[in-house]
Amino acid sequence: MNSEIARRIATRTLPLAMIALALGGTPLRADTLAAALASAYETNPELQAQRAVTRQVDETVPQALSGYRPGVGATVGYKANGDNFNEAGQVFTAGGTITQPLYTGGQTKAAVSASENLVLASRAQLRAAENTVMVSVVTAYANVLALERVVELTKNQVKVLSRELQASKDRFEVGDLTRTDVAQSEARLARSQSQLIAAQGTLTLARESYRRVVGRLPVDLEPLPPLPTLPGTPAQAVDIADRNNPSLIAARFNEAAARYTVRQLEGQRLPSVAASAGLGYANYTGAGGVVPNGDYFTQNIGVSATVPLYQAGAVGSVIRQAQEVRSQRLEQITATERVVVETTTNSYSNVQTARATIQSAEVGVKANTLALEGVKQENQVGSRTLLDVLNAEQELLTVQVDLVQAKRDEYVASYQLLASMGLAEATVLGAPVTPYDSTANGKRVRGIWSDWATNPNPAAQPLPQPVAASQSVSDFVPVPVAPR
Asked: Which CATH number belongs to the domain containing residue 369 in this structure?
């Protein structure tokens, strides 16, 4: 087996398993793919962080709705008047005002619409994050199984070559083989042992990648379950992706939010109307006749209109800026559509390629198995050399590893195709999880009027030493290696 085979699996393993996991609780025992998916769904910090982002965006709706609601304020004051620190009068005041917007040029309505579309976009982005995490779990799971099989095949190759080396030495002792034959056996065994070490190292990397995704090291993984049903043609897959890909859905909602933001800013050029009412109280003591001592009450009510005439060009600039943001969002829709078509088509092609490779590799395994047996028998009668046997064994191992790799590729490509169609979600894949309701928080906070309704703050995390921000504080000092 060539060490490039192990590296080839590793290069497909690591880039796709970039999701970390480690927040509290005991993760599920990930001995099946469904359990691994459930563990990542419930504890993966990248997914948890995206859920927090969605809840952040939920708050933009009540913030926008506050433009419809009244504002209430109160003031309290105390003032002592004097000459050369001689008390000449004391004044205590208190008052309250309430202001109710009546017309804001459509700004509030547009702001609410923009916020609602941003919320929908964030929910779609959460779906995209979930699809990514689920594909990462499948990839990590399939990689561990594939590399375990590669290590098993390579170990078996080492055992076979060890026996053949001993047999070569025995035949050399009786003069049946030359020293060259023995050296060839030794060289091939040493190469196989080196490849076993490389394969075991690559498996270690895959296991650690699995832990980052799922939250625990893989233990006794069950074989992969049968693949889900896939579309029959690339066109069908692309059609589903166009309607269901979460990244594309998010791009469309983001464009709608940008459109409403333009309308909101355009409202700054229109008049605004507000009603207000106030109540005041003042108490004068020792005023020396300037104001009679006593209690005084005042009240007022009124309506005011503000008509912007000239705002130094600031509003026009802000509107033009928002219009360009919307232009950007429109182009991002097109760009995302192209990426979705490309990703979906490529994933579909990868599935078909892997399936064809599996068929070819299965034929190759059967043919190379028969060829190896034939070469061994011919070697025993002297018509084949020991090198021919070693080469036949290497060819069999190579095609066996190719078959393992092709099966892994088919599985991963299938789930990548599902993700591009927005169907690689935990509940769709049948993982035993309680679905996270991304709409619940938005419904809860939408009607909250109170300024004191907040969430508990998380506990403070321990901080590193301040000096660590500017220099290393490690006790370990690497010693330079002396040149040989």
From this structure: 1.20.1600.10
